[in-house]
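can u pls check wat happens w/ C2E
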Amino acid sequence: MTIQVETTVRSPEAYTLAHRAVDAMQAASVWPTPLNFELWLHYLGDPEGNLGQEISRLLASGAPFTDSTAEMLAAEFLPRGRLSEEIRDAGAVLNRELAAVAGAIDKARESQVTYGNTLAEAADRMANPGEAGNLGDLVASLAHATRRIRRHTAALERRLESSNREVTKLRDHMEQVRRDAMTDALTNLANRKAFDEHLLRLCDESENAGGSLGLAIIDIDHFKRFNDTWGHQTGDQVLRYVGSVLGRVARAPRIAARYGGEEFAVIFPGETAGAIEAALNSVRVEIGSRALRRRSTNDDLGAVTISVGFGVRRAGESAGQLLARADEALYASKRSGRNKVTAAAEAVSNAA
Ligand code: C2E
């Protein structure tokens, strides 16, 4: 997808595509920020690609397209500009350190060879009293060679210590970059990419080892209406609020993630359907019990509620099938009045 779109962006049709992107953003009431523009270029360049489909889905759902939605889409679907830059920079630091260490090793090796030669010469001269010459000169040249090798060995040690510090710093930094790439910046929960990876891995484990695996999808009720009334900034705070309650409840081994705009997901490894339902109901009650205030004006925002669908993986079921069942249960919660937790049916219904 990326290659095709990038080629288009450098072709004569690029201006047409750019105009269309701006028009399409305006039609969807999306601000023409640089990131949104980049997303729309990719979207229009490849509407059937993963990013294109996700944007179409978001627009069709009527969910507001906020900065955090854009960041989440970029983190998941755009070429990893920042990550590849970081990797390139890390490579440059490593090369510099390796070159410096190699230089110091060369110097130390050179002075070791010289030292060896000096010792051999001195031994020859001492073995042959006729050639020994002035003993004082001999001792002075040995002392000089010894000082030189000690200097180079000390320089090598210093160089290795400093490289060790640099490489440790680099490793910590890369670990942070890796964590950032798997985290939703707004809520600090796992992002969808990280979540999908966990879900696939845990599905495999559950299939092979036979442990139970629950999955819940959580959607904030009437979020679009909330955003339209109070604005995106307050909407983002509601997302953070729901995220913070979920994060507290979904401690390891549970995994909570922001799954889409106002959609969250939680994995429950090794728990019964009853325990999962009870945990989700306590989250639902906790979220709905708080009267939120608009921070800028202190307006009463009322409470937000969530609708939830969950399922426990059946033997042989794939991650996609489990997601589909949980999703269908979520819509059953929505259809039957919202602010509910619904357990998934045994199989996805044909009506879905
Ligand atoms: P935040 O604004 O960064 O607040 C982080 C945490 O600081 C909150 O976690 C809470 O423990 C504490 N805190 C901040 N402001 C207040 C306050 O006025 N009173 C009290 N008692 N504690 C406060 P918490 O509760 O889990 O909320 C997480 C995030 O959810 C908040 O991040 C904010 O973005 C959003 N949020 C929660 N409640 C409200 C609310 O009433 N109105 C708005 N606009 N956002 C809220």
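The two ends are 29 Å apart (CA to CA).
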